[in-house]
Amino acid sequence: MKLIKMGLLIALSAMLTACGGIAAYMDTSDEKLKGQGVTLSETVKTKDLYGAWMFSTDDKDPDDIMLIFAFYTDHTGLAYGLDVNRKTKAEHMSAEYFTWKLDETNKELHSVIFKQVDRKGDKRTEKTVNERDTHKVGLYRLDNQKFAITLDNKSQRMIFFRMPNETYNDFIKLRPDLPKLK
């Protein structure tokens, strides 16, 4: 939950500068989006979520922040956040491991976080939790390919862009404690 709340603050404050002009797509009308090849899917299927989705801050931001949501085919998932101060190089990593199920009819993602890991510098903490959460899910397509998802709940809205599985698997080579995508 702490990682998701951090995601809200990051997403709201930095989304306009993240990923160049891509975020501007998400702040326009559906009609304008259609003219640029971006559409909001009327349906969201479970298989649409499989894989990795990411957000990162612009190079001008004082903190280099990356958030990754990975949805595995066994219905477990990972919410991974890495925040590195560009000046001091101080690093803060958070990871939440969860189970999930998509209610396709209502476009609702139901999750239960079962483990949280937090690392600041050399100090690492890990705890077992049982936190339930529900998010409304929106799926955006660019030229009919999965492009971005929105996750909305009572307190936040997050936007994540599709991350190719190969890119995710290359990234986690440096983090052997994180599960691979198939």
Mean pLDDT: 81
State the distance separating the first and last CA atoms: 26 Å
The percentage helix is 10-25%
Number of helices: 5
Low-confidence residue ranges: 1-29
What's the layout of helices and strands?
Blueprint: H1 2-14, H2 22-25, H3 30-35, E1 38-40, H4 46-49, E2 51-56, E3 63-71, E4 76-85, E5 91-103, E6 108-120, E7 123-142, E8 145-152, E9 157-163, H5 165-172
Antiparallel strand pairs: 1-7, 2-3, 2-9, 3-4, 4-5, 5-6, 6-7, 7-8, 8-9
Description of the molecule:
Strands 2-3-4-5-6-7-8-9 form an eight-stranded antiparallel β-barrel. The longest helix is centred in the N-terminal third of the chain and has 13 residues, at 2-14. It has helices at 2-14, 22-25, 30-35, 46-49, 165-172; strands at residues 38-40, 51-56, 63-71, 76-85, 91-103, 108-120, 123-142, 145-152, 157-163. It is an alpha+beta fold and 182 residues long. It has five helices and nine strands; from the N terminus they run αααβαββββββββα. Mean pLDDT is 81; it is low at 1-29.
Which labels suit this protein?
single chain; 182 residues; alpha+beta; eight-stranded antiparallel beta barrel; 5 helices; 9 strands; disordered N terminus
Summarize the entry for a quick read.
This protein has 182 residues and is of the alpha+beta class.
